Amino acid sequence: MLPDLTSLELFRRAYELGSLSKAAKELHLTLSAASRRIAILEQRMNVQLLRRTSTGVLPTAAGTALAFHAKQLLLQAEKLHVEIGDYADGSRGVVRMCATASALSGPLPQDLAAFTESNPRLKIELLERRTAEGIAAVRDGRSDIAIVHASDPLLAELRFEHYRAENLVAVVPREHPLNNRSIAFHRLLDYDFVGLEGNTPLMALLQDASRAAGKTLRLTVQVWSFDVVCRMIKANMGIGVLPNQAAKTYCNGLKLRTIALSDKWASRYSYICTPNTKLSVAAQRMVEHLRSTR
C-alpha cells in the first residue's frame, strides 16, 4: 500500500528542513502526530528513513532515495488535483454530441468551431446520426446532446428546444422544365422523386404533405445520404427536396438548381435534444453556447 500524501509531504519537509517539529508546524500537526506518521511510514517501507539527533533529523540513505521519489509523487498529485479540478469547473472535459447531416451542412460546424476557440481545453466527440438515432443516443446516455429535426413531447426524460430555422428547397437538374423561383410542393408531385431511406423527419414531412394534397409521392429511388440524393438527381432519376444548406453543400459542381418551396411547413426547426437531468458542466456550456447562436 502506498503511503498517504500527507505523510509523504511531512517526510519531504522534515528532510528539507532537517527538523520534524518545524515540518509538523507547517502542516498544522502536533509533534506526536507527526512522529506517529513517520513511524508508520518507516514500518510500511520496512526501513529507517530519518535519524533523530539533538538538533533535528538527518536522512538515512533510504530516506534520501524516498525524498527524491516523494517530491515526484507530490508534484504529480498536484497536477492531478489541478486537472481534476478543471473537469469540475468545466474548463476541461468532453462533450459527446450527435447531429444530423442537415445540421452538419448548415451553421453547426461554425458554431462548434467558435465554441472550441473559446473553450480550447474542452473536447467535442461528434457523430453524424439521423434524428431517431440521435434521440436514442441521448435517451440511453451515449450522447450528451443531439441536434435533431423532430421533437417528441412524450419523451419526458428528454428536453427539446429550438436551435436553428432552415428552409426546404426543391432540387432539380439544370435543364428541368420547372424554372420557377418559388413553387408550392403539390406542383412537384407530378414528377418522380429521389428520397432518403427510412422514416426520417424529412421523408415523413414530404409524405404527409403529399397525402394532404391528395397525391402519392412517387419515389423511384431511396438512398442513404444527401450526397447520393443529389447524384441521383444529376442522373435524371427524379427530383428531390433538401434543406437549403445541404443543397448548397452537396449540389456544388453537379449543375443542379434549387427552387424555394412556398409552403409554410417548408420552414422548419432543428432542435437541441438533451436529457431532462443535470448535464456535466462542459455539456451545459455547449448548450448555452448553442442557445446564444440562435
From TrEMBL:
InterPro entries: HTH-type_LysR_regulators, LysR_HTH_N, LysR_subst-bd, WH-like_DNA-bd_sf, WH_DNA-bd_sf. It comes from the Bacteria. Signal peptide: none annotated. GO terms for cellular component: cytosol. One of its GO terms (molecular function) is DNA-binding transcription factor activity. Gene3D superfamilies: 3.40.190.290, Winged helix-like DNA-binding domain superfamily/Winged helix DNA-binding domain. Keywords: DNA-binding, Transcription, Transcription regulation. Residues 3-60 form the HTH lysR-type domain. Belongs to the LysR transcriptional regulatory family. This is LysR family transcriptional regulator.
